[in-house]
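Weekly structure sync, notes
Attendees: PL, DS, HV (note-taker this week)

Item 1: DUF3700 domain-containing protein
DS walked through the input record. Source organism listed as Musa balbisiana. Sequence as pasted into the shared doc:
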Amino acid sequence: MFAAKDEIYCLFEGVLTNLGSLRQQYGLSKSANEVVLVMEAYKALRDRAPYPPSFMLAHLSGNFAFVLFDKSTSSILVASVRHPPSLPPASMSIPCFLHLLYVAIAIYS
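Item 1 (cont.): predicted structure, written out as tokens:
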């Protein structure tokens, strides 16, 4: 999944097993998917110190990988997590994932 909003670009692959509780925590609608949640959580923490935006990673649970690029701060956040360890790895490799994000940023900027 890919989404872009307010100069934040995110490419997400996988599933968050705690998506419902995270939607509630961040005040998002029931229709918000994983990529929207990651972007909104990042943005909320970026804009409200004292926590760094990467702090939200501790709250995410599931089998997922994502690359988030914030054009306004020229920063990138990359995460890849598998819970529980018995789950198969995500179908997309990180180099392929990064290439797709680069292409998406080039298209949308």
